[in-house]
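haha ok so turns out i had the wrong file open the whole time. this is the CORRECT one, sorry everyone. sequence first:
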Amino acid sequence: MRKTMKLIFTLYLLLFTSHSFAKPIGDCDGTPNDAVTELPSPINIWGQIVCTPYGHIISNMEGYIWSKPSSYSPVMIPSQMIRSKPEKLGNKSYFKEITLTKLTGAEASKAISIFEEGFDKSETTPKVYSLKVVSVSGKELGFQFFEFENNHWGMWCNKICNPKSRFMILNMNKKPNNAINLDN
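then structure:
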């Protein structure tokens, strides 16, 4: 599945990049009316829904890269929600529900604490969002997104949040925080 998902991601990058926040990209003809085709704000700034031969996926918006920091492999959220051997279901596999909630207070503090395990404590407090996606199959996945001033992160949070599942959301149009000046 890893090779298949990387292939889908590579095809997506090469063929279907777009700046549109409103509509999914790719061949979406025949997508059922009950499919969610737009991401809520602010995730629609960094991500988008892509229609692939293997179903709809949530992946990075053009100009951003979603990547695991340890392997630099691409991150996407597939609507099939299986670990191996995805079927070529096309637009028959889609998201039926996408819910985003901004976390505050103790909920946000707990999420940040889990996220920062193994990291230095951040100097700034991020905005924290909880994302729940439900596939037409009835399966659901959970995530948390952390919006710092100049960078963003995500973390898989199904039954529990796992800091080892963190992924970076890199804005390729901005220099990272504390960037080294190579001009001097």
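Residues 2-171 form one domain.
again sry for the mixup
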